[in-house]
Each structure stands twice: as C-alpha cells, then as structure tokens.
Amino acid sequence: MMTTSPVDKPRYQYRDLDLSSKEIRVVELLPGALDEAIRIKFHHVALSPRRPSAIRLPPTRKEIQKTLPADWIVRVCLDGRFLFERQRQYGPEEPYETSWLHPLTGVDPNVAFDDNKLEYEGLSYVWAPAGGEEYAYVVEPTAPSTGAASSRLNIRPNLAAALRHLRYRDTPRRLWIDALCINQANLEERNQQVHMMCDIYRRANHVVVWLGAEDAHSKLALSALRHLGEQAVYTERGAWRTNPPGCSNPELARASVALPFDEQTWDGITKLLQRSWFERLWVWQEVRLADERSFMLCGPDSISLSVFRRAIMCASDKKVLPSARVRGLILDAVEVMLPFSHQPFFRELQTLNWKGCADPRDKIYGALGAAPAAIRDRVRPDYALPVEQVYGQFCKAYLDALGRLDFLDRCNVDARQIEAPSWVPDWSVPVDRAVRLPYADVFYAAGASAAEIRFRPGAGGRRAGEVMMEAAGVTCGTVSFVGPKSTADSEGLRAAVKAWEPAALSTERYAPTNEGAVDAFVTLLGLGYTIERWPQCNSLLTVPEAAELYGREFIADPQGGTVSHESANFIRVRHRYFIKTDTGYMGTSHARPEVGDQLVVLLGCPSPLLVRPVAAAAAAATALPDPDSHPPTGEQRPRRFRVVGATYTHGLMDTEALLGPLPDGWRARMARVSGFFDSMHFFSAATDEVTGLDPRLRGEEDPPEWERMEAVRSGADPWNFARYRHRQTGEVINSDPRLTAAALEARGVRVETFGLV
After folding, report:
1. Considering just the CA atoms, what is the radius of gyration of the chain in Å?
2. I need a labelling partner for 431 at 20 to 30 A (CA). Which of 45, 535, 644, 728 fits?
3. Cα separations (Å) of 526 from 183, 420, 544, 590, 658?
4. For the chain, first and last CA: distance in Å?
5. Residue 581 Cα distances to 482, 510, 598, 610, 645, angstroms
6. pLDDT for 686-708, tens place per residue?
C-alpha cells in the first residue's frame, strides 16, 4: 500500500507539446496491484500524417465476389469485416452456412496491416462529477518503472477505478486519456487536441470502454449479452441479419423468438444500459472510431465491442421485450453503438442533442468526429469563443459545406438561452423526445433544392455584430388560428386534439390536398408516419385504419377521458401547438405560434417554417447601417423575420410549395435503398411503379449545362439530395438545378427573399 502523503509531492507541471508536429501525450500506466497507488509516466508521441504506403488494405467486396463460386456471396458487416454466405434454399429453422474464410482458398480477407496504428489504447469513459479526487503519481519518463514519483496529478474517482482495473500486475500499459493527456489549463493545446480527437482514436491500437465498477448483476448481464451477440451478425449497413460462423443458438437472433432472460438478467441489462457512459456525448465518436479489436470493461468483466453492438441490435429487433422502458434503453444504446455510416451528419447531430457534456460548445465540437471533412475543416475548436459564436460559425460551415438549412428545424423561439440571431439554434437546450421528430430531416418540403442565402453583417436588428441571413423561399400563408398546446399525458393529449378538430370533420374535404378532412387530420396527428408513406414499417397504421380508430375513439366518444394504447402509439403531436392558415393549411409546431406568423418554405429546408415579422419601426431603430448591402436579386431590401420554429404542415411536405401537387394517383413514400437508410420515392397506384424521379418533373429536360449523375449517398450528403455535374467546369453539386430560385420563377413560382434576424 502507498504510504506517502499526496502533499509530499508537488503538482505535476505539463511539458508543452510541439503543436506544429501534432504531438500528443501518451500515459504509461505502471504495473501494480489493485489496491496500490496509481503510478504513471508521460511520453510525447508525434501523430504524424498517415502514410498510404504503410497500409495494406483488404480487397474490395466486388473484387472478392469475382473469386467466389456461383452459390456464394460476400457481405460486409457493420464493423467492416467480410462474411461469406452460401446461397441456397434453407429450411425455416435451418441456420445459414457462413464463414469468415474464403470458401475456396481458406484465407481470411479481413487481415490487413496498418503501420499507421500507434502503440496505445484509447480510453472511453465518463469524467463523472468533481469531488473525492484521488491521485496519480508521475514518474519521470527516463526513470525506471520502479523509480520514485516526482509529482502528482488529481484524478476523479471513476478514472482512478478504471486505471486500477486496467493496470497489469507485471508490465506497463500505454493509454490515451483525455483528462490526463491534454493540459486542460492550456487553451491553445486544448483547442488543437480536440480538433485532433478523431485521429487520436482512429490511430489507437484499439479502444477500451470503461463502463464502471461491477454491481450485483452486471456479470450476469454481460454474459447474457455476450451469448446473444454471438448468435447474430449484421451486414449491408444493417439491412441483413444472419448468423456468424460457429454460433450455438442461431434461432435466438430471430425477431419472433423471445429472449430467455430471467428477471435478474433483465434487471442487470437495464442497470447496465442506464450507466452514465451511454449518456455522455464524447463517447459517441470514441466508440464509432473503434476497430473490431476494441472491448468494453465493467469491473473485471469484458465483452467485445462488436459482440455488444450485435447483441443490442438483435434485442432491438425483438417483437416482445419486458417493457417500453427497456425497449427505449435498448434503442438509445443502438444509437450510441452504430458505427459511422452514410447517415447524414445532421441526423447524428440530432441524436447527440440528448447527450451530456460539461461545456455547451462541445455540443458542436464533440460531434466533429462524425462530420464530413468539408464541415470539419471549416470548424476549428476554440473554447475562448462565446457559445453563440460557436453555434453561429457551425451553421455557416454547415451551409457552406452542404448547402442546406436543416438546422432551422432545431430553432425554437421559446427554448433559447443564447443571444444570437433567431436562425442560430441553441444546441445547448435539449429537445424533449416527445417533441423532436426522429426523422424530421427526411421531410421533403423543399425537395432536393439547395439553400440560396447571403449574410449581411451588422443587420441582425438586436445588437452589434449580429448577422441577418437572407434566404430564398415561398410564402404559403398566414397563421389565422392557434390551437392549445398538447401534453404528454393521455387526458391532456385528448383534450388538445379535440380542441384542434376541424368542424364537420367527417364530411368536409381538406382543400390543399383535395382529400377527406378526417384523412388529412389523422395524417397530421401522426406527423405523416403511416404505412402509405413508410411501407416497410409494419408497426404503423394505414390512413384508413387511423381514420377508423379516430372515429371510434374521438368522434363517436367525444367525452372519453383517456387515449387508448393504440391511439397513443399513433398520435405523435405531444407538446405541440396546432395552427390553421388563411390559405387552408393545418399544421403543428413545437414552437409557440402567434396569429400573424408567416408559413414559409425555404429552399434547402426540409420542413415548412413559421417566421414572425419584425416591426418595421423596431428594425429601423436597431439595425446598423450597411449602405453597400443589397438583396441577392437586386430588388428592394427584404422584409425581416424571426424564426419561430419548424412545422409539420399537411399538404406542404412533398415539395408542393415549389412544384404544386403530385399528379392524380401518385404518392410520395420512403423506400429503403441501403440498410437503415431511406430516401424519397414516388409510387403510382395505377401502375405500381416506384421511382426516385419526381413525376412533376418528368419530361422536363435537365438544364443543358448540367449532367445528371447516379445519386449514391455519401456521409457528406444531406438526406434529400441529387447529383449533377457541370459539363464545362466539372463542378459536382448535391442538388437539383431545376429547383433553383431562377428556375422556379421561370415556372411561375413567386420566390421571395426573407431576412432572418
């Protein structure tokens, strides 16, 4: 046991890193028994550029497939490994014939050599609150491992526990640990190291996840999850589940087969998934940068990261789980554990809104590991900047890189703690899960159009330095009625929905879409989540089923006190307001609307927005002079508005504001094209045709200067995108050139410029 008092040792003074050579510190954890004092050394390591010549990559999937017999196929697992599967008729209970080895050569194609990996392990853990600090004693790097410590560092209890469990008894271990390896007091160093975080974890030999100390049932939980994860493997970006080679209980992976876990096991799994590691923002990129050799540690017990991921995904597929609470915890864990993918970055950013971090700037900086290079290169961490400036710079970088206004979906006039223009979301304010639309970025109000904006410094209208964003779009109406805000509880939800209900609902028609008012209203209550729009989601209702359910529970029984379980699952408008416009539209918004708000669709924004006019006198009194500024079109200076929030407005979600209604018999719906990820397609009821080409643009020639390309999604694309290449310059864009402001005006659409302040 260590008997030296901590006060006998001075605080460790960090030696500066050579930031020009991208140096990092690596901790050498010196050997010791579990109850001995923690002793470490620091080493400086240059994170030199990756050398392509030092990497021997495995062959591509297409290359491997060419070498296989006709009855074999190669699949790509979520962790990047190749899996071989024999194609033949299998019996209902028969497991698939799979192998990690090539069926002809017996070679594992997953073996690759990357000399760019460095000899340290990246630690993923939770800092935990300050208090009850322990000490790590620092030995000089040139001293022997048994040498005396010269100084000390304060460390928090959770890290101390992790180091004690990670420490070997007889050999050192090298780790990268953010709390120790970054001099938190040196702002310049901290900025650079945070920007390098993606490379630091990617270059690690592997990642170790510390979940915390063991509890009464954690060993049982990990054992059950380990067995479950060994029965399933996910390929094709999650679209295909099969059994891995040598699994002992393959039927357990089927969605219809209940998990044979007893109450103690479920209790252990529940407590495991409630650990704070799953709620921390930074772990999200740390675990996604981890390779297949990485593992999770809970006390002395470990589980492969890949196996844990497969277990959680398999559990999330189960039709029956112990409770909605358990299902929610499992789904939250799936969001954390999914590897980097072709999922749009904004979707990842939305997921991180619920994750915890000590510094609100990290709501952006902690997500950069998943950001496309075009965004990451435009955002340099700077913890000296005010939070609102960090958020504003990110929005500009997002616009520059992707050309979209998806982030306006996060704006809420009522949920702001920062002093910034209304078009800058306050990322520090978590969105209630009952309010946030999980797939709002797949809404299609602006189609595959790109934003057309310009910024005017000094014209924000509230304080010096604010910026007005001028954005092109279309006015769709003025709010003429605001219904009460709904609540999450059953009685409050029912009362609000009844207050929203249009008169003569059963007999009237909804003018914007020329359909029955009851069909339009129930589609609105479900925020468009119906079988007709999401045909692959069997748990959803069809519009007629939803209408019948509403008629039975709300119209036939107007005084009913509660909402049934079936209705509660379908209705998605909790904590939302209802609006009607003078043009006949119905919609809902998470932000509080007012009569007189304008309903608009901006180019490049997937959801219709509510914007609030700024009084001319107030704008003139507060705006800074900007004599050289002029609107993009050379017309008069645009009217000024504040962003209220995004809406779901029935009849505007499928680009109707720009292109008009779909032809008779056509419907917009989501089609699965790769794994978990869907894209907007169009379905003809008359011919059963499903196409990615908008029928409203059929027969219309592409602009002669643009050549259409195959639209293969990459992580740098927004959800709604197209791919065109300029015939002369070679420029490639991610939007449809037929949906520019100029092209729309040529079609007779009245495009306006809105000044957002």
Report:
1. 28
2. 535
3. 50, 33, 13, 14, 24
4. 63
5. 9, 13, 9, 11, 16
6. 999 999 899 999 888 889 999 99
